[in-house]
């Protein structure tokens, strides 16, 4: 049974606990969906790097995954606000905001959530809302680190490709110079032109090298350090997320006793 007050609907303890459990379980369901989206995102990147997917196909999947993340975030923000009580709400853009209690005095108040609306109960359980908030913050870090790792991998691949081109250009220049040395007796007048061509090749190679990704070229060891640091930090964040999810499972277990 729910009791009405000037601050909205306040359910009895049993109903309140059931609502909290339902919200936390709903969040865990969304978290499972988010893990699936991450897998799709990572798998697409691997296919793209392996040249088994075109840039257009990869961009399409990235857009689909991004939209999926946005929709999940809106759903999760609604659950977080539902748990947090009448001082929390979701605005039209899906952002969690603070509102006055007077905004939620009607028993029919709802949270707009995309195409969905959720009946408003003042659960007043900020400690459970905070459990979700912790995961959300960590998930944001996880996504940023994932994108950073992919960017590093692409930059490393681009530098390696440029290094290969530079080596081929140097070999070509050496062949030209070697050929002109052998024929210098009969082609003395052409020597300057050929040397100039070799110099132009080297100049273009040097310019491409300096402009690669607009950044300083790194050694293989330096790339590995950057990639390992990114991977290690990402693993740490994933472990923290798993710890917070375990806290949510424990909170559910306590409430259903």
TrEMBL record:
InterPro entries: REX1-B. Residues 90-116 have a biased composition (Polar residues). Residues 89-121 are annotated as: Disordered. Residues 147-174 form a coiled coil. Keywords: Coiled coil. This is Uncharacterized protein. It comes from Entomortierella chlamydospora. The lineage of its organism: Eukaryota, Fungi, Fungi incertae sedis, Mucoromycota, Mortierellomycotina.
């Amino acid at each position: 049974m729910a009791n009405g007050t000037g601050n909205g609907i306040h359910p009895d303890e049993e109903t309140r606990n059931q609502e909290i459990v339902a919200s936390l379980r709903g969040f865990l369901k969304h978290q499972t969906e988010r893990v699936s989206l991450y897998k799709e995102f990572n798998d697409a990147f691997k296919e793209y790097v392996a040249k088994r997917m075109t840039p257009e196909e990869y961009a399409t999947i990235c857009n689909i995954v991004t939209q999926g993340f946005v929709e999940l975030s809106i759903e999760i923000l609604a659950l977080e606000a539902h748990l947090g009580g009448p001082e929390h709400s979701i605005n039209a853009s899906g952002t969690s905001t603070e509102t006055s209690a007077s905004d939620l005095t009607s028993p029919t108040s709802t949270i707009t959530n995309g195409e969905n609306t959720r009946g408003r109960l003042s659960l007043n359980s900020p400690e459970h809302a905070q459990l979700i908030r912790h995961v959300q913050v960590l998930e944001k870090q996880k996504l940023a680190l994932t994108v950073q790792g992919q960017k590093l991998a692409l930059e490393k691949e681009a530098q390696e490709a440029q290094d290969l081109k530079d080596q081929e250009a140097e070999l070509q220049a050496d062949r030209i110079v070697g050929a002109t040395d052998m024929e210098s007796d009969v082609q003395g007048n052409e020597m300057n032109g050929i040397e100039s061509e070799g110099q132009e090749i080297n100049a273009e190679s040097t310019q491409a090298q300096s402009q690669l990704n607009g950044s300083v070229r790194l050694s293989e060891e330096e790339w590995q350090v950057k990639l390992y640091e990114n991977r290690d930090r990402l693993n740490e964040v994933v472990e923290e997320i798993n710890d917070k999810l375990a806290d949510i499972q424990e909170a559910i277990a306590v409430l259903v006793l």
